[in-house]
Specification:
The structure is a single chain. The protein is mainly alpha-helical. It folds into 3 domains: 5-100, no CATH class; 111-202; 228-403, hpI Integrase, Chain A, CATH 1.10.443. 50% of the residues lie in helices and 11% in strands. The chain has helices at 60-85, 92-100, 111-124, 132-152, 164-176, 183-202, 228-236, 242-257, 261-266, 299-307, 325-338, 347-359, 366-373, 378-384, 389-403, and strands at residues 5-11, 22-30, 33-43, 48-49, 54-55, 272-274, 280-285, 292-296. The protein has a 3-stranded antiparallel sheet with strand order 1-2-3. Strands 6-7-8 form a 3-stranded antiparallel sheet. Strands 4-5 form a two-stranded antiparallel ribbon. Helix 4 packs across helix 6, helix 5 (164-176) packs antiparallel against helix 6 and helix 8 packs across helix 12 (347-359). 30% of the residues are buried.
């Protein structure tokens, strides 16, 4: 007996995006068994006609979405017909497989095998071409991919079947899984996975570029930094114990040097240099770019170095009493509460504070800030550097004095 096929399109309201839109999913039902796949479209749920299973209205958007859904429905019905002609068992999952072309037994490399090849090569180049932190991010991305394939496909899923639909479903998975990612974090993992796809295309294991129409846009977010009054609060704040005091000090050090956590942690007392005028500065290669950074030590940074010069935590030659990044961020939340600062303090905030409040607001040129932060592109620096009201006032006062 031929099993009939039923097709519905479901707006997945549980996956609502920041813009209010929700992704559409196609549901195939055969003999009570269901299989779903992304329809590769997002819609405003208020415009969805549940009776007609289509988008309301005659706008260009509604016409494009509805035409796309008609094409998908035809593909499903054609897959159903093909299974009937082959006299194969008809199930919802088999129809989905046929639509995706996964019933094609053509030899190819599995996604995870190509991912492992990419990561192994990256691991061998740590310290040469890549930082260890970059490798760890790709290792985490591979773990997310494994979990995604376990949930939606199979660990043997072939790389030549990765398409736009696959990427969108992976993005949806990252943003809805337990301990879900933000849109920007999900996009970063998709950027990492693109390198695996690039490798597969280079090795001729994949012909098409699934990223060609994939939306890789990041949500623009203004960087968080401490204003001058908040920085003063932090400096004056008295900590109830030594652990919090140390974390406060290493964070302040970032505010006055622009160093990232990884750079601050690897710093040694031997990284301090002195010029012919007796000015002390730090010189060290950046973890990310491996470019040498030269940072003049401001009085507050010098004060912190001196404070921990003979501390047991710096007996190994380290410059500061650093602990793990995770514990540092946890303690910084407590520090912020004690200092009455309503911001989530991280080392990123420290770098932003240096760029904006300490450097730019006091007349340091953006090109100099770029060098200190270790950026290879000035656009990255401009993202950190914000023109504050105080900076505008200072600049206009100087202009007024010059003009008389």
């Amino acid at each position: 007996m031929i099993q009939p096929i039923h097709i519905n399109f479901i707006p997945r309201k549980s996956k609502k995006r920041d813009d209010g839109k929700v992704p559409l999913y196609m549901r195939i039902t055969v003999n009570g068994e269901r299989a779903e796949l992304s329809a590769s479209r997002t819609i405003d749920p208020k415009n969805w006609d549940t009776k007609k299973d289509r988008l309301k209205g005659r706008t260009s958007t509604a016409k494009e979405v509805n035409t796309h859904l008609n094409i998908l429905e035809n593909k499903a019905r054609n897959a159903h017909t093909a299974l009937i002609q082959k006299e194969e068992e008809i199930t919802a999952k088999k129809i989905r497989l046929h639509m995706r072309g996964e019933d094609n037994k053509k030899e190819t490399k599995p996604v995870l095998e190509v991912f492992e090849l990419h990561n192994s090569r990256m691991k061998s180049l740590i310290g040469n071409k890549y930082a260890e932190s970059t490798y760890k991010k790709h290792k985490t991305c591979k773990l997310h991919m494994e979990n995604f394939l376990d949930k939606e496909f199979t660990r043997k899923y072939p790389i030549n079947k990765v398409d736009l639909n696959f990427l969108e479903e992976f993005a949806d998975y990252l943003m809805t899984k337990k301990d879900s990612c933000s849109n920007n974090s999900a996009r970063k993992y998709l950027t990492n996975f693109k390198k695996v796809i690039d490798l597969a295309r280079k090795r001729k294991w994949l012909n098409d570029n699934p990223y060609e129409d994939f939306d890789m846009k990041y949500e623009k977010k203004d960087p968080v930094f401490l204003a001058d009054d908040e920085l003063k609060k932090l400096k004056k704040g008295e900590m109830p114990n030594e652990s919090l005091e140390r974390v406060k000090d290493v964070f302040l050090f970032s505010c006055y040097t622009g160093l990232s956590f990884s750079d601050a942690k690897k710093m040694k007392q031997s990284d301090i240099r002195e010029d012919s005028d007796g000015e002390r500065y730090l010189q060290l290669p950046r973890t990310k770019t491996e470019k040498n950074a030269v940072i003049l030590l401001l009085p507050k940074a010098e004060e912190i170095i001196e404070k921990y010069k003979d501390d047991p935590a710096t007996e190994n030659g380290s410059l500061l009493p650093m602990i793990s990044n995770q514990k540092t961020n946890a303690y910084l939340k407590v520090v912020a509460d004690i200092c009455d600062i309503d911001k989530n303090l991280t080392f990123h905030v420290g770098r932003h504070t240096f760029a904006t409040t300490v450097a730019l607001a006091n007349g340091v040129p953006v090109e100099t800030v770029k060098h200190i932060l270790g950026h290879s592109d000035i656009r990255s620096t401009l993202h950190y550097a914000r023109v504050t009201p105080n900076k505008v006032t200072k600049d206009m006062t100087l202009l007024r004095e010059k003009l008389g």
